[in-house]
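RNA pseudouridine synthase domain containing 1, pasting as requested.
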Amino acid sequence: AAMEPASLENLQVLYQSPDFIVVNKHWDIRIDSKMWYEKQTVQSQLRHRFPELADPGTYYGFRFCHQLDFSTSGALCVALNRPAAGKAYRCFKERLVTKAYLALVRGYVESSQMTLDFAIGRNTCEGKTHMMCTESTEGCENPKPSKTELTVLEYGLYDGDPVTKVLLQPLTGRTHQLRVHCSAVGHPIVGDFTYSLRADSAPYRMMLHAYLLRLPL
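Structure tokens follow.
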């Protein structure tokens, strides 16, 4: 069910072949972790569900083809062997992968379509070193070109506040790109505690979901 938080048993598999598994990652769960106390991860869910597919030659047992933030849910591709991981890596490196996300953002986005084209770098300001930022932000280090296409799908309310449901298509793959770009145009993602500067804490999760993932293997 959509509202259920993650548990060891409730991993949802979207696609499976001899080379790949695509899972529907829950929100608020790490893909993997070396911390002894972090017992619930996608890696541990996979090992619980598919112990026979774990590769003892890797640290985590599974080869994750890409990353999703702790707070983001949705399609996550896992390679089951080294050649498959190599194929996926080349697809990502050559930008052949199609990705699209669904999000709820604060406020009503006026333009039906927008290209968000802000270079993104690491925030070096005290207390914000865990964050990324746009090039114009004070303390922005090593900004790199970043582009996201935004399409408005629907307008509505969340707990009485105006929100817009949008489709986000990242054309580059910077850390926290969608979250930073939405925040930069004044429409932060609902429930994004970090990029609302700890203000948006009421929603039960961040409303960002990896909706589509296509790899031309």
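Note for the archive: The domain at 12-94 is CATH 3.30.2350.10 (Pseudouridine synthase).
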